[in-house]
Amino acid sequence: MALIDQTYFVYDISLPAGNYSDIPGWIARIEPDILRALLGPALSQLVLNYDSVTSEQRIKNIVEGTSFVKDEVTYKWDGLVNTNKKSLIAYYVYTQYLRYNVTTTTTTGERKSKNENSRPADQSMKMWRAHQKYVSEANTLLDYIDVNIDKYPEFVKPETIPGGNLNAFDL
Question: In Å, how far are 20, 62, 70 from 145, measured between CA atoms?
Fold first, then answer.
């Protein structure tokens, strides 16, 4: 079961919801991949198996959030799951959803829908802003783990933020 659900896609990262929404499928496909890339295989599996009752406190801190001190400054890690409905997972899923839903693949090639009484708009800035928020949240998570590295022996530090290079032109 995924950590987040489609209720995280509100406000600046709103996505179409409803009975025919494919957002749960996007979450199920992307969430394990991004957590594995950020945390490594062993730690990501512990996080994906999170249970609010039985998980160790160190895993709860990643999922639910906590405060931490780095360089004598106190920071707040909001967690992967929270009541604010802000999660690095949601921001990353949003960028991928927009990236791959601009066009539709058909048997005759890529097609872009043409709606009556509307025009296509450029989504690159919305996607870029969401991606920047993902990178910021990912950096905060990695800072938290770095400060508490003795609690996370399974952690495999990524060389760079996975999916971290995106500009307003999706290049």
Answer: 38, 8, 11
